[in-house]
Amino acid sequence: MQRQITARLTGAVMLLTALMSGPAAAASEQQCNWQPERAVTVIVPWSTGGGTDANTRQLATLLEKAMGVPFNVVNRTGGNGVVGHTMLARSRPDGYTIGAATVEIDTMHWIGLTDLTYRDITPIALFDRPTASVLVNKDSPYQSLNDLLQEAREHPGKLTASGTAQGGIWHLALAGMLKAEGMAPDAIRWIPSQGAGPALKELMAGGVDVATPALSEAKSQIDQGEVRALAYMSDTPMKALPEVPLTAKELKSGWTMSSFVTLSGPKGLPDNIACSYEKAVRQAVNSDAWARFRKSRGTSVVFEDRQQTEQTLASTDRKLGDVIQSVGLAK
């Protein structure tokens, strides 16, 4: 009896092996093999000079080398991020237009800027997770985060800040922090910008008192002494700037806030094209060139595949929706 059972099991295994090595396996091997035959347009919804732009351009360079056609990065700013994200979502889903869909795809619809949501794009991969900071001009009188917040408590509305669009992630980082510390979300007034690059220029020129972009986006300005970092909205130091105080330790609320950047395509992007891009991005972020680039910016290599990215988009939409409602920005 035992021999009969063993023989049956052996036969089943042989049959399964044969099936796996037959047409099913061949079909699987044929997937994720799409290659562009002409130039690809890569949309960035934010201005040059910021972290999204820098990371996307580096990724595009590596994809260009891997896939053998030009990857042309174009900055489509405006509408607090709506213009670029809408252009990406409404492009033809043929693989020749992809883009950097940022965390604002999970915030814009909550504040009434657009009906566009993460459901209107096809996530390919997540390749950056920047964390907010609190920055001031080199000549600012505020020497610590507590100094800054004390001024905001005593003179609400006097100070101004920038970093991204109205209701964008760096705005939510500031408004959420203020609310968590018992102040009005607009105790420091928000001045919208087209991204971290323009906001940092305004900060250095004295046009605003505070900027709250990713700490990595301001690393060169910090290194050059143009701006000072009062805080990093994290519970873990940034390796390249470990001396920057952590909000998790400095604040009673322990407030933290981070963002993300994805490579995405329009809704309806065929699976073979999406998984081909996912495969190429995975190879790019595992390359020495990408590791060197990330190190130069003081950041670690991060990667999420299509399924993980879709889950991140969905869960973040819910979480940030709660934050937007709590700070009174929902419409």
Describe the structure using short key phrases.
331 residues, alpha/beta, D-Maltodextrin-Binding Protein, domain 2, 2 domains, 10 strands, 15% strand, globular, BUG, Tripartite tricarboxylate transporter substrate binding protein, Bug_dom1
Q: Uncertain spans, ≥5 residues at pLDDT below 50?
A: 1-29
CATH architecture of the largest domain: 3-Layer(aba) Sandwich
Strand content is 5-15%
- Overall shape: it is globular
First-to-last CA distance: 71 Å
Please state the average pLDDT score. 91
Supply the CATH superfamily name of the largest domain.
Answer: Bordetella uptake gene, domain 1
Main sheet characteristics:
5 strands, mixed
Sketch the topology as an H/E string, one letter per element. Answer: HHEHEHEEEHEHEHEHEHEHHH
Class by helix and strand content? alpha/beta
Can you walk me through this structure?
This protein folds into two domains: 40-129 and 260-326, D-Maltodextrin-Binding Protein, domain 2; 133-250, D-Maltodextrin-Binding Protein, domain 2 (3-Layer(aba) Sandwich). Helix content is 42%, strand content 15%. The protein contains twelve helices and ten strands. The strands form three sheets. The chain has a five-stranded mixed sheet with strand order 2-1-3-10-4. Strands 7-6-8 form a three-stranded parallel sheet, covered by helices on one side. The protein has a two-stranded antiparallel sheet with strand order 5-9. Strand 1, helix 3 and strand 2 (71-75) form a beta-alpha-beta unit. It is globular and about 60 Å long.
